[in-house]
Design brief:
The structure holds 3 protein chains of 3 kinds.
Chain A lengths: L7 H19 L40 H9 L3 H18 L1 H4 L38 H37 L1 H16 L2 H11 L5 H28 L2 H9 L3 H38 L11 H7 L9 H28 L6
Helix pairs in contact in A: 2-12, 3-5, 3-12, 5-6, 5-8, 5-10, 6-8, 7-8, 8-10, 9-10, 10-11, 10-12, 11-12
Chain B lengths: L17 E16 L5 E17 L3 E5 L6 H8 L7 E6 L2 E2 L5 H7 L3 E4 L13 H11 L6 H14 L16 H13 L5 E5 L7 H18 L2 E6 L2 H7 L2 E6 L2 E7 H6 L4 H9 L5 H6 L41 E2 L10 E2 L4 H6 L21 H4 L21
Parallel strand pairs in B: 3-8, 3-9, 6-7, 7-8
Antiparallel strand pairs in B: 1-2, 1-4, 4-5, 9-10, 10-12, 11-12
Helix pairs in contact in B: 5-6
Chain C lengths: L4 H6 L8 E10 L7 E11 L4 E5 L6 H9 L7 E9 L2 E2 L5 H7 L4 E4 L3 H4 L6 H13 L3 H14 L5 H4 L9 H13 L5 E5 L7 H18 L2 E6 L2 H7 L2 E6 L2 E7 H6 L4 H9 L48 E3 L2 E3 L10
Parallel strand pairs in C: 3-8, 3-9, 6-7, 7-8
Antiparallel strand pairs in C: 1-2, 1-4, 4-5, 9-10, 10-12, 11-12
Helix pairs in contact in C: 5-6, 6-8
The chains are: A mainly alpha, B alpha/beta, C alpha/beta.
């Protein structure tokens, strides 16, 4: 119903102001002391002819606003996105500066003296140790902070791996179609038919020695088919779109059509998926570490591993599980909120 | 489908005037079904044997209702849809037989203007890169800087200020976008422009701007147009010659004023009489030929004359089983380039045959040829709403 | 309500308006954006048996007006003010539940896209009987023959068979007929048709328009025809309202408004449409697009696109002034149309 692309009034006013400025330039001799562009009255009593627009309508003098710019314009005012962004940025900052933020050395058992396997396996909070310590007397607070770095590395690298693999497969399938498409997509279907965690588990278990890297590879492989399928669908939609047909009719080379027109337009949903996948990767990494397929070096803190280690003490000291779990939930939520609002902002249907 | 040899090209008179010759073009889309192995279980006969010629500098209008295959024909001419059969000869080269790099280079000469100006412009490209792209692909410019003067010229030609260059498609109004689409088509110096419904997505007040613009550009650059549209008034306004399509083939072809003055095919008559005219006095007095029923499915077209299921002049003989070819009629006052595909055109024109009521045939759009035997098209027993026929063809 | 089609026909000639819209305003308020006045003080009357046209381009507020009358605009994010008086009741003051009772019974609507306005998983016949069940308290068995009757009435061949068809099994024209059958099921006194033929081909459009015309004549139903196509209006409407930028800019009976359009917009529209019966003279388009509109507050929104603006056009809002059966909102009316 409403066709105006953006805020109708504001743009009208400014446009009106531009037109007036042009006229003022023309009549340079006249020095009208007007500063702010006012909508009315303009040209009061003056000739009304130059009010009429050019046949094609007016075009603002301002430089153009690309799709991403206008999406950002809307995101800036979206509280959901801002919340997600804040969580994410805080998480990333904490992960990067963990060694400096953490009050204590996360590897050192400061309170080991207070650990009594029978009566007091988990030392409670005390001055300097706001969350208490774990069963080896290490500061829980510092371990949580330090653990964010592992979590981020695993999450980001696994998602990037999945993204890259999916990009390759999806582009192949979407751009070429035909038997390439069939072949790639059947393989992807097979991978998708296995529950993701089971698949990651099997891949993780295949490795001779579990390490942080097997964890990343396992999760990345699980992400590949999701990205591939999404990108392929997105590419197919682009392939049958009018603007790709237009490029074809214009005589653009096929490689240029794929890289300049299809891929950039197909990437929107994939990038959104990437933020959501990051959340899933973090949870998957936590799950695998929980089972013990993560980094075998138990001294290095990781939220999933911390969660896993806490299960022995879950009855008497549930807080040991709560803290890392809450961290995982909040970070995953941050990425999800950001992804969802990105999806909304980039959807051309919501654009007015 | 009767075997149609390509029309003798001699009918064009002077050969060198012809820019594009379409000979017996057919586009059939297979309907596939199957879980693992796709099996072709039928065809959509979108374009089913079309011959036409477009002369240099003229505007050929292709008109018809949705599903008549006019857009598919337009794409087949550009080889954006590969024709199943037939030849599309442009400047002595059969475009339908070209492939790969050869085809890509040839595309410089034939350009297209799309219906929806927003969806046909890549939302991520600025106007500048949209316009430069084609020029680069055909070696007309090396980079945007070098192309700048030409870009300004192009924009000026389509009535846009050069400030539009660094803007993005979504920042324009519908009419402005269509101007950009036209500028893009012009950017590679084409000889023929196929415009597929160039104004139907625009507001009424803006349509006229684009129609005028197309006319001006034709004069300025000596362009040849093939304009495809469902709006008869638009087509009549801009075309020199008009071809009327029904279910995949051309049923009548004539110079625009002739077609309007003396429509010979029953379908053309009905179509002309159905177009509302913004003048109450004319609307009150004119008689309409109301067609009954729907357009038959192009996957299961009627035998014989495609129009016989809805034709108020249908005869017991020939109409049902013999497919009429486009032919010149022998009626006084009808010029030789007015062709019609109707067995009874002369008799209908002289008034010897009078229209009668037609039983409505309702069409299930999901049916197609292969299963027509079981539950295909349904021929209703109930008589449909009668034709309100007076003296058709007049009263407009 | 016991009104039947026949009762409605009896008071066709009465002058009391059936529907009287006064100063209808619809404002879309989106978070973080300036409010947008989609409908800006629209007033018009519809008498029983009358066909009133609302004409304008996309964004002129014609569809929003109809949705506001039907009470179909979401309340959240919109401000609706004014009165919509239907037979003595202000529809805007009714609760959602009361409005639901009225919709389909007293006022019915036909939409532009027949495929998306029909439920794809329910046979068409059942969708007709649902209305009868809801508003007339009939059971399905009793409603069935009546539904078949309605389908026959709107020209669907072999209604006893097609009653079991799903929407996707029908063609566009048939679906629109089915939609009209649903709208007519309870013999409404007012039918609102929002671009009912825009999605259809010309030959099918001619069928549907003929059907609407016939139904209006037979049943005495009042009809509000919303369209962008002046040709459709010319053949169908008794009275024409031309909308621009959310306001009515010109109103008049069918013949005079086409013969002597007085608003530059109406005149411009008529000059910019290619006509089938006129030779190919150059069209005189209206420059610009609706994006060039001025706000109505202190100006005429159309002024930047107008062919004959004067200084006052950008200083004061023109009022809708009525003379006889015509009304005009313009500072500098067209004296010599086209």
């Amino acid at each position: 119903m409403s066709n105006s692309d953006e805020n109708p009034k504001k743009s009208l006013f400014s446009r009106y102001g531009d037109r007036r400025k042009a006229r003022i330039d023309e009549l340079a001799a006249m020095s009208a002391p007007r500063t702010a562009p006012a909508p009315v009255p303009v040209g009061a009593g003056g000739p009304a002819e130059d009010l009429t627009v050019h046949e094609s309508g007016t075009i603002e003098e301002k430089p153009g606003v690309s799709l991403w710019q206008s999406a950002w314009h809307r995101l800036r005012r979206n509280p959901v996105f801002l919340l997600g962004l804040t969580i994410t940025v805080v998480f990333i900052l904490v992960a990067i500066f963990a060694p400096w933020i953490a009050p204590k050395d996360p590897l050192q058992g400061y309170l080991i003296d207070k650990v009594r396997p029978q009566s007091n396996p988990i030392p409670g909070p005390e001055p300097g140790f706001p969350l208490g310590a774990d069963h080896l007397g290490r500061d829980l607070m510092s371990r949580l902070i330090a653990g964010s770095r592992q979590t981020l590395i695993v999450g980001v690298l696994a998602t990037l791996g999945g993204f890259a693999g999916g990009l390759l497969l999806g582009t192949l399938a979407g751009a070429f179609g035909g038997w390439v498409d069939s072949l790639v997509m059947r393989a992807v279907d097979v991978m998708l038919s296995i529950p993701s965690l089971v698949l990651a588990l099997s891949i993780g278990a295949l490795a001779a020695r579990p390490s942080q890297w097997t964890l990343i590879i396992a999760i990345a492989v699980v992400q590949v088919p999701i990205f591939a399928r999404l990108l392929r669908g997105s590419m197919l939609a682009q392939r049958s779109s009018d603007h790709v047909l237009a490029a074809q009719a214009l005589g653009i080379r096929r490689s240029a059509i794929v890289t300049r027109h299809m891929l950039p337009n197909a990437m929107g949903p994939v990038i959104v998926q990437a933020t959501l996948a990051l959340a899933v990767s973090i949870i998957d990494a936590a799950s695998l570490s929980f089972i013990g397929l993560g980094n075998p070096d138990q001294r290095i803190p990781e939220w999933g591993a911390m969660l896993g280690q806490s299960q022995r003490f879950i009855y008497d000291n549930p807080h040991l599980a709560y803290y890392p779990a809450i961290c995982i939930i909040i970070v995953a939520l941050g990425f999800t909120l950001m992804g969802e609002s990105l999806r909304e902002a980039l959807d051309p249907k919501t654009r007015r | 489908m009767t075997t149609t040899g390509p029309h003798p090209t001699t009918s064009a008179g002077d050969e060198h005037d012809v820019l594009l010759t379409v000979e017996g073009v057919k586009v059939h889309f297979p309907i596939k079904q199957g879980v693992i192995f796709d099996k072709t279980i039928g065809y959509v006969y979108a374009v089913d044997g079309v011959d036409l010629q477009i002369r240099k500098g003229e505007t050929y209008g292709l008109v018809g209702e949705s599903g008549c295959g006019k857009s598919t024909l337009g794409r087949a001419i550009l080889n954006l849809e590969h024709p199943t059969e037939g030849r599309v000869v442009f400047d002595g080269v059969d475009i339908a037989s070209l492939k790969g790099e050869e085809l890509r280079r040839k595309r410089q000469d034939l350009q297209m203007v799309f219906q929806d100006p927003l969806s046909s412009l890549d939302p991520r490209q600025s106007v500048e890169s949209l316009l430069v792209e084609g020029m680069k692909a055909h070696g007309l410019a090396k980079d945007a800087k070098q192309a700048r003067p030409r870009l300004r010229e192009l924009l000026h030609a389509v009535g846009l200020p050069s400030t539009a260059l660094n803007k993005y498609p979504h920042e324009f109004s519908g009419g402005q976008r269509q101007r950009i689409g036209i500028a893009r088509a012009l950017s590679v110096d084409p000889k023929l422009i196929v415009a597929d419904e160039p104004v139907s997505a625009l507001d009424v007040s803006v349509q006229a701007q684009v129609i005028n613009l197309l006319g001006d550009l034709q004069d300025e650059f000596g362009l040849t147009y093939l304009v495809i549209a469902h709006d008869l008034a638009v087509v009549r306004h801009i075309s020199d010659r008009i071809g009327v399509m029904y279910l995949g083939s051309i049923v009548e072809e004539a110079a625009a004023p002739d077609l309007y003055a003396e429509p010979l095919h029953p379908y053309t008559r009905a179509l002309l009489s159905a177009v509302p005219i913004p003048d109450p006095e004319i609307e009150d007095s004119r008689e309409q030929i109301l067609l009954t029923g729907d357009l038959p499915s192009p996957s299961n077209p009627p035998t014989g004359c495609r129009f016989h299921t809805r034709c108020p002049w249908r005869q017991k003989t020939r109409c049902d089983d013999e497919r009429p070819q486009l032919r010149v009629v022998e009626i006084g006052g009808i010029p030789a380039d007015h062709k019609v595909a109707c067995h009874w055109a002369e008799q209908i024109h002289s008034g010897q045959l009078q229209p009668h009521e037609v039983e409505a045939v309702s069409v299930d759009p999901t049916s197609f040829a292969a299963d027509a035997g079981d539950h295909g098209t349904i021929i209703a027993e109930t008589p449909g709403r009668a034709t309100q026929s007076g003296d058709p063809g007049r009263g407009l | 309500m016991t009104t039947t089609a026949y009762a409605a026909r009896a008071d066709t000639r009465s002058d009391a308006p059936l529907l009287s819209v006064r100063d209808l305003q619809v404002t879309f308020q989106r978070r973080g954006e300036e409010p947008f006045h989609a409908v800006d003080g629209v007033s018009f009357d519809v008498r029983p048996g009358q066909t009133v046209g609302l004409v304008g381009e996309s964004g002129c507020g014609k569809s929003v007006t109809s949705l506001a009358i039907m009470g179909l605009l979401p309340r959240r994010g919109n401000r609706i003010s004014g009165t919509v008086d239907f037979d003595g009741t202000d529809l805007l003051s009714l609760s959602d539940g009361q409005m639901r009772d009225r919709r389909g019974k007293d006022i019915a609507m036909v939409f532009q896209d027949p495929l998306s306005s029909l439920n794809p998983v329910v046979p068409v016949g059942i969708q007709v009987t649902e209305v009868l069940e809801r508003h007339r308290g009939m059971n399905r068995k009793a409603a069935m023959p009546m539904a078949a009757d309605l389908l026959k009435r709107v020209g669907i061949p072999d209604p006893d068979r097609r009653i079991k068809d799903y929407p996707h099994q029908m063609s566009g024209g048939m679906r629109q007929r089915a939609l009209i059958a649903i709208a007519l099921a309870c013999a409404p006194r007012l039918l609102i048709a929002d671009e009912p033929t825009t999605a259809l081909d010309v030959t099918i459009q001619a069928q549907i328009l003929a059907l609407l015309k016939e139904l209006v004549e037979d049943t005495g139903t009042a009809l509000i025809m919303i369209t962008h196509d002046l040709g459709v209006v010319a053949g169908l409407c008794d009275e024409v309202n031309v909308l621009y930028g959310g306001k009515i800019v010109e109103r008049g009976p069918r013949h005079p408004i086409f013969r002597t359009p007085r608003h530059p917009y109406t005149n411009g529209l008529l000059g910019s449409i290619p006509r089938l019966d006129a030779a190919g003279e150059r069209l005189t388009p209206i420059p610009g697009s609706v994006a060039d509109n001025l706000p109505w507050d202190h100006a005429c929104a159309f002024a930047p696109r107008c062919s004959q603006p004067i200084a006052v056009c950008t200083q004061t809002t023109p009022e809708l002034e009525t003379t006889g059966d015509r009304a005009l909102r313009c500072h500098n009316p067209v004296e010599d149309p086209r």
